[in-house]
Amino acid sequence: MESHLKSLLQPLGRTELCDSVIPALLDCISEIAKSLRESQHVSLAGTTNAFGDGQLNVDMAAENLVREALAKCPSIVTASSEEEPVERAAGDGQAVNPTSEKYTVAFDPLDGSSIIAPNWTVGTILGIWDGASAINQQPSEKQIASVLGVYGPRTTAIIALRVPGGEPQCLEIGIGGSGQEHQIIRSNVRLADPPFKTRYFAPANLRVAGQSENYMRLIMHFIEKSYTLRYCGGLVPDIVHALVKGHGVYVSPVTVASPAKLRRLYELFPIALIMECAGGKAIDPATGEDILNRPLEDCDETAGLVCGTAEEVEIVKKVLLGA
Amino acid sequence: MESHLKSLLQPLGRTELCDSVIPALLDCISEIAKSLRESQHVSLAGTTNAFGDGQLNVDMAAENLVREALAKCPSIVTASSEEEPVERAAGDGQAVNPTSEKYTVAFDPLDGSSIIAPNWTVGTILGIWDGASAINQQPSEKQIASVLGVYGPRTTAIIALRVPGGEPQCLEIGIGGSGQEHQIIRSNVRLADPPFKTRYFAPANLRVAGQSENYMRLIMHFIEKSYTLRYCGGLVPDIVHALVKGHGVYVSPVTVASPAKLRRLYELFPIALIMECAGGKAIDPATGEDILNRPLEDCDETAGLVCGTAEEVEIVKKVLLGA
């Protein structure tokens, strides 16, 4: 795997990204997987009414593991996370060997709290930006890579790369255990072109269809056209399903009664980059605009999401926007 | 965990069940988890059009691990599996110490083939029957235990016990790694009583709603009443979600255009026992009858399934049967 990354990134002058940043993040995903595997009693929290301490502890353990990984990489100068949505220095500010590459990492350490207790697949979301901040930058140019960690029966990762001067890349990685090598499962993750053998849909926040005529029309379209339903309610596994199957559309609409909940910086931007690098699309259902078109003004911003196979995203856009 | 099982089963004269059968099955679940964790390239099969060799290899590895575990238990005299649906001797027929307890085990070694490639949670289903066969026996009396193995970020198991003379039991177990102890996560898994804080639904085969007026009415009921959708398409994780959250209803209807696919012996009976032991219900959507009421005539029989919270199963029954 390392030689493959080197062949992609070294010609683009991204030595730190391929020798330090991405390996540190993949090792960190391996560590989070181990921590989850050993946290049997954490699931108890999910069985109580409120979010209990145990569940918060799993999130915090993942947060700490990512922060430790970032601090090891001199080229990562800034970090912020969904658990603490403020940009601050990633290391101790005393890097011995300042590098010519400078990155900002924005991450959601453990996405899918609601499905941790029943032992469903959950994930980590990481976005890597050129420069010392993600704020007021053009996401489509400055977010140059993103990584998803997928914790299921196996531990896997998706890496998307869109480094200036290079072709967009999307890879699936098999994460090894402690001290083991990571391996490439697929070096070119691509959503399929039509005609589609099986069409999948993942309708988030389905109860909104009770108040939204357009969302209900969309659901009826999926049922009448015999789409296959797969919706686990975890953003990472729902997105990875589409990438691995080669088809899928994820729909999280926003209405007055149901405000946007997905964080632009920690969830939408990294997912959108992966979808685009895999040949798909990711748009804001409120405007139809590409998720990666509009810069961030504040780490806390939220929006809806429609993403996946480009042809399906176009259909959803037309129905939801009533166009 | 072992002392808890002993306290439940020894007074009922089930020494082999608690000292040999259940420990062997839990260790086997730990082995299957390890095998899945190390099978990174198996996922490739799911990405091809046909069911490839890799995927079949994972199923077969799990099948072999279960067969090996059963052969170690002198009290297990008969076994059959979804991969080979014929009852045959579980061991070599040469048990040195024949025991007074005699069991038949029916199992699905790895349920959820379609979601193995995207690294979603999958499971193992095992039913334990009193006597030398499951055929032409009353399931509600003769299937005395069932076990689900759940392979996600962690490895867990659900055990249901309904041994004559004892109270029904449902436990959640955290499965340890090789040589590690298994531990009780919850000693009393129970579906909640109304009022329900959050109501969950898992609609299998949703495309059938396009041809079935009753199924469509049911889906509309769920949406209008603001139920939360969780449907991953793996029977084990979908059932375990309801058990861990304390609420849920799983609906897999059968129509002329969409024949029954769930195996009565390998899927429906073990799931139904778990649901009943957790205070829920499991019925055949074609008749409204309890799944465990009707004996099996052939290992291959299939049916639909509605199961989960008793109040919800009653609502679904009325809508689907148009009563």
TrEMBL record, chains A, B:
Biological process, per Gene Ontology: fructose 1,6-bisphosphate metabolic process; fructose 6-phosphate metabolic process; fructose metabolic process; gluconeogenesis; sucrose biosynthetic process
Pfam families noted in UniProt: FBPase, FBPase_C
GO cellular component terms, semicolon-separated: cytoplasm
Keyword Magnesium listed: yes
GO molecular function, one term: fructose 1,6-bisphosphate 1-phosphatase activity
Residue span, Fructose-1-6-bisphosphatase class 1 C-terminal domain: 197-319
Cofactor needs: Mg(2+)
Residue intervals passing through the bilayer: none
Domain Fructose-1-6-bisphosphatase class I N-terminal stretches: 31-162
Biological or metabolic pathway of the protein: Carbohydrate biosynthesis; Calvin cycle
Keywords for the protein's UniProt record, in alphabetical order: Carbohydrate metabolism, Hydrolase, Magnesium, Metal-binding
Protein's UniProt keywords contain Ribonucleoprotein: no
Entry's family note: Belongs to the FBPase class 1 family.
Descriptive protein name: Sedoheptulose-1-7-bisphosphatase
Protein species of origin: Penicillium atrosanguineum
